């Protein structure tokens, strides 16, 4: 028996908007060469960076202590997770959940100077705290909602303790295909995304499938954010069953999710 890999803290964001067909969520299809979840559809997100815990990060909204209660972790980890959620959304979707201290949200982050700072974040030449300070902005934790908590099973070689957040696309900003980790981006209703998954054209990992199912009943962004699960969130760590008809993820409550693997390129 090998010792299970300790899961890395990670954050991912369900970025939402009200589209013509109803509530839509921003989805990335990860490139097939990625070492984790290659070819799978997912949300913007990634692992925590050590500087995400900088106490110098200007902050407005629910405190790290409140986020620690929501996710059942310590304050340092909570600060890292919220900062990672904001940083990764900017890095992978070009959307920045920040604003002025007076409560306004920054309306546009698509110019050349913004892009240079986004690239510096990706290269770890700049921290989120430094970006916000240079712009005179504060992180807006009130734009985020705790949504889910998933932990990769112990048997997996790559493990993540992932906190899922939900957030509305800020007015005046547009999500952009700027990440090199995805070969396709889409705004889809949860129902449309799940239909493509069921048809075998949009493979997803169980957390994505399950959280899309959680979003499906909501008519619009306001309802989705107001309907976030109660706190604190209970972590979900699935097990797997191999059956003649394929592999299934089994959740603690008995829910079974059929795994769909990417088709060969």
Automatic annotation (TrEMBL):
Requisite cofactors: Mn(2+); Mg(2+)
Q: Where is the signal peptide?
A: none
Q: Which residues form the Nudix hydrolase domain?
A: 6-210
List the residue ranges forming a coiled coil, or say none. Answer: none
- At the top level, the lineage of the source is Bacteria
Query: Record keywords: Manganese included?
Result: yes
Q: Which GO terms describe its molecular function?
A: hydrolase activity, acting on acid anhydrides, in phosphorus-containing anhydrides; metal ion binding
Assigned keywords, A-Z: Hydrolase, Magnesium, Manganese, Metal-binding
- Transmembrane stretches in the record are none
Q: What is this protein called?
A: Nudix hydrolase domain-containing protein
């Amino acid at each position: 028996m090998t010792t299970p890999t300790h899961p890395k803290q990670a954050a991912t964001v369900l970025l939402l908007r009200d589209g013509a067909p109803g509530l839509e969520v921003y989805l990335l299809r990860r490139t097939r060469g990625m070492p984790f979840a290659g070819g799978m559809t997912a949300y913007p997100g990634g692992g925590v960076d050590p500087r995400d815990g900088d106490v110098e990060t200007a902050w407005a909204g629910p405190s790290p202590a409140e986020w620690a209660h929501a996710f059942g972790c310590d304050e340092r980890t909570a600060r890292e997770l919220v900062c990672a959620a904001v940083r990764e959304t900017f890095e992978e979707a070009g959307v920045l959940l920040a604003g002025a201290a007076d409560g306004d949200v920054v309306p546009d982050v698509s110019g050349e100077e913004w892009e240079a700072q986004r690239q510096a974040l990706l290269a770890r030449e700049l921290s989120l705290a430094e970006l916000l300070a240079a712009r005179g902005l504060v992180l807006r934790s009130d734009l985020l909602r705790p949504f889910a908590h998933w932990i990769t099973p112990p048997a997996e070689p790559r493990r993540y303790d992932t906190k899922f957040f939900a957030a509305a696309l800020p007015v005046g900003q547009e999500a952009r295909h700027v990440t090199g980790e995805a070969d396709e981006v889409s705004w889809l209703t949860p129902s449309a995304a799940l239909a493509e998954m069921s048809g075998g054209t949009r493979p997803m990992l169980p957390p994505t499938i399950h959280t899309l199912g959680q979003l499906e009943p909501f008519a619009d962004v306001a309802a989705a954010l107001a309907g976030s699960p109660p706190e604190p969130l209970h972590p979900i760590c699935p097990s797997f069953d191999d059956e003649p008809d394929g592999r299934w993820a089994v959740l603690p409550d008995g829910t079974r999710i059929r795994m769909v693997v990417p088709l060969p390129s």
